[in-house]
Design a protein that fits this description.
alpha/beta; Rossmann fold; six-stranded mixed beta sheet; 7 helices; 17 strands; about 30% helix
């Protein structure tokens, strides 16, 4: 029985180290079928001959997912512990919180839903759009003008092309050039790294070129795989760091699964503000308000 769209597979030649979903199949008379793959838990694109693929059972796929979920719970537990220590002695009864607003562009609809749920869990106002990596730069200015975010996340899938030898050549990467162009478009509209924080890239992306284009943080310094939620975790750190504090790459590494080898960048001012006193009325567009 052949491989078909939507199958969960692993590559035999790589020891099934990454679990993929089949999203396209290309036919070639001479070479046979080439199967296009995207990572289930990591932001990686790859292709493979059908003969190198093996179906992954639902049980094994769940085990792989649980490994990442466990790592994410450990990271979240550490973050919660540090936040708790930081709140000791503070009077918060009459304080309201305003983290940075986020615009998130994602080349993968399934990952976008996952990311938006995570923003919701963190109580961050986020606007998400599913756009293919090569289409993101065409829409980015319009969306920035509409949403007016504090933080822009540009992500999806990426990966080094097979037999790539020159990592300084943007053509060695599947989608890095798209991320670079999106960052450049955004910086044409807002050049300040403090006014608009940009987090860009995916698995094995061209880290140096994305930073040079104007990103604050980018993947992947060591060309490693990054987890689907790593850009969101990095974003959350910036969103909840006070505006008078600086976020470092080392701090980002503490709250992502991939760590400093997966996402790095520049010192960046936080986007979080405290306010007081707490509002007594909920604002409604048009000037109406309801008492709590």
């Amino acid at each position: 029985m052949g491989i078909k769209l939507g199958d969960i597979v692993g590559r035999k030649s790589y020891g099934c180290d990454v679990i993929f979903k089949v999203f396209d199949i290309a036919e070639n008379r001479e070479q046979g079928k080439t199967v296009l793959l995207k990572g289930v838990n990591v932001r990686l694109l790859a292709d493979s001959p059908e003969t190198d693929l093996v179906l992954i059972s639902e049980e094994d796929a769940d085990k792989d997912k649980e490994v990442f979920a466990r790592k994410m719970r450990e990271v979240s537990k550490n973050i919660a512990s540090r936040k708790k220590r930081g709140r000791l002695g503070r009077q918060e009864d009459n304080v309201f919180k305003r983290p940075g607003r986020v615009l998130h562009l994602d080349g993968d609809g399934e990952y976008l839903k996952l990311c938006l749920k995570e923003y919701e869990n963190m109580d961050i106002e986020a606007f998400g759009y599913e756009l293919k990596e090569e289409e993101q730069s065409k829409h980015i200015k319009k969306l920035l003008k509409e949403i007016k975010p504090d933080i822009l996340v540009v992500t999806g899938h990426d990966g080094l092309l097979k037999d790539s030898k020159d990592l300084a050549d943007v053509n060695s990467y599947r989608n890095s050039n798209s991320f670079i162009q999106s960052v450049k478009e955004a910086r044409m509209l807002q050049s300040s790294l403090d006014d608009l924080v940009i987090i860009a890239g995916a698995c094995q992306s061209y880290y140096e070129a994305i930073l040079e284009a104007g990103a604050n943080f980018a993947s992947s310094p060591d060309r490693i795989l990054i987890h689907a939620l790593d850009p969101v975790k990095a974003c959350g750190k910036v969103a909840f760091t006070p505006i008078d504090k600086i976020v470092s790459s080392e701090e980002i590494s503490q709250i992502t699964i991939s760590g400093i080898d997966g996402i790095g960048g520049l010192q960046t001012r936080g986007k979080y503000r405290d306010g007081a006193p707490k509002p007594r009325y909920k604002y409604k567009q048009g000037g109406e308000g309801n008492a709590n």
